[in-house]
Amino acid sequence: MIPPFVRELMEQLNEHGFECYVVGGAVRSALLNLPVHDYDLTTNALPQQMKEVFRNRRTLETGIRHGTLTVLVKGEPVEITTYRTESSYGDHRHPDHVEFTSALRQDCARRDFTVNALCASMDGTVHDFFGGTDDLKRKIIRCIGSPDERFDEDALRILRALRFAARLGFAIEPETAAALHRSKELLKYISAERIHEELNGFFAAPSCAEYLMEFRDIFEVFIPELRNLSDEQYETMLASEKRSGENPLIRTALLLRLCENPESILKRLKYSGTEIKTVLTLISGTERPLKDEKDLCRIIRDYPDTAELFMGYRCALDPSLNIDSLLAEYRQLTENGACCSVKQLAVNGNDLKNAGLAGRQIADMLNEMLEEVIEKRLKNSRPDLLGYIGSHKNDGA
Ligand code: ATP
Ligand code: MG
C-alpha cells in the first residue's frame, strides 16, 4: 500500500541502518480505505544523519530544527521527522523544546490521538502502541494519555479532535469529550488564524452538525455571539447545517446568519476580504425570492461569481428547495444564453451615448432594460431595445 516514491526513501534510510515508518494520516486513511494525500515518515536517524543519507536528493530544511527534513521525490515533497519527544508547552500551543529519541513508542506518545499514532513499516506491518487500530474499528477519537494534559499542552488539539471526528464520522470517547468541555477556555491561547483554518476544515467535513450541537460551548468560546441565540434559533441553524453540502463558506454563513454583526466575527477570526464578502453576500440574500426562472435570472445577475454557492446556501435553509433541480435549471439558463446581465443585452453603452444619454443615465437605462427583458416585457433584440431607449430616455428626467 506504500507507493514506490515513498518506499525509495524508506529503503534508503534502511540501507544506512536506520528505521523508518509511515506515520499519522496516511496509515489512518489507508486502514479506513480512504484516499491518502500525503505521506509523513518518521525515523530514528538524527537530522544530520538524514541530511547525509539524502545528500544526493533535493531537500528543504525549513523544519530541520524540529527534526523535519522535506525530501523531494519526482517533485513530490515527503516530510521525514526524527523520532522526538516534546516537553513543557509554555504557550499552550508549541513545545518549549523538542528532544530526539531512539524509541518509536516515544515518538508515537507525543501525537494527539490514538488513530493518528499508527505506524506502518515497508512490509505493511502496523505498529500500534496505544490501541489506535481498535479505535479505528470502533470509530472513536481518543487522546493518547490524559486528555486534560494533552489539551493543556496544545489547545489546538481541541479543534483537531472535532475536525477529525466530523471528518471521519467518529464519536469522541467519553473521557476525551469531557476533557474537551473542561479545557475549552484554553482556546484563548490559539491564534485567530489557526482557529479559522480548523473551522474551515471542520466545515469541509461531512457531518459537522452533531458536533456543533454536542460541543456548542466550545464554539461559543471563540464566537461568544452564539450565546445569544435561543435554543430554537440554534436548532434552526443545526437543521440547515445538516442539509448543507461540505462547503465551508456556506456553512459559515449558516452558522453566523442569526448572530449580531457577522462581519465583526469574521474580521476577528481573520477571514480574508473575499471570504467575508462572500459570506455576507450569502447572508444578505437569505430572504430573496427563488420561485421561478425570473428569480433565478436575477440571482445570476446579482451573484455573477457565486450563483451556485448562493443556491447551495438557500437550499440548506429551505427544505422545500431542491438543489439538483435548481442547478439543472441554472445550467439550462446559462447554456441557452438567457440574458441575465447587462453585458448580454443586444445594445451597449455606446448605443446609449449615441441616443443622447450620459453618465449615470446609461447604467440606469441598461439596468432598467435588463429588468424588462428578465420580466419578458421586452425582447433582447437590437431594434426592440433601441425602440425602448427612444421612448423611455426622458422618463427619469
Ligand atoms: P490530515 O489528513 O488532516 O493532514 P494528519 O493526521 O496527516 O491529517 P497533520 O496535521 O498533517 O494530520 O499531522 C500529521 C501527524 O502529526 C498527525 O497524524 C499526528 O500524529 C501529528 N500531529 C499533528 N499535529 C499535532 C498536534 N497538534 N499535537 C499532536 N500531534 C500532532
Ligand atoms: Mg497530514
CATH homologous group name of the largest domain: Beta Polymerase, domain 2
The counted number of beta strands is 11
CATH topology type of the largest domain:
Beta Polymerase, domain 2
Mean pLDDT, as a whole number? 95
Sheet having the most strands? 7 strands, mixed
Distance between the termini: 75 Å
Alpha-beta content class = alpha+beta
Show unreliable segments: none
Looking at how many chains there are and whether they match, the oligomeric state comes to single chain
Share in β-strands: 5-15%
- Strand order, main sheet: write it out: 3-4-5-2-1-8-9
Question: What does the model show?
Answer:
- There is one protein chain.
- With 397 residues, the protein is α+β, with helices and mostly antiparallel strands.
- The protein has 21 helices and eleven strands.
- The radius of gyration is 28 Å and the shape is elongated.
Key words describing this protein structure:
397 residues; binds magnesium ion; binds adenosine-5'-triphosphate; two-stranded antiparallel ribbon; alpha+beta; 4 domains; Beta Polymerase, domain 2; cca-adding enzyme, domain 2; elongated; seven-stranded mixed β-sheet
Helix/strand layout:
Blueprint lengths: L3 H12 L4 E4 L1 H7 L8 E4 L3 H7 L4 E3 L7 E6 L2 E7 L1 E4 L9 E4 L3 H6 L9 E2 L5 E2 L4 H7 L1 E2 L5 H7 L2 H13 L2 E2 L1 H10 L8 H12 L5 H6 L1 H7 L8 H13 L4 H9 L5 H7 L4 H12 L8 H10 L4 H11 L5 H13 L13 H6 L5 H15 L7 H11 L5
Parallel strand pairs: 2-5, 10-11
Antiparallel strand pairs: 1-2, 1-8, 3-4, 4-5, 6-7, 8-9
Helix pairs in contact: 6-8, 7-9, 9-13, 13-15, 13-17, 17-18
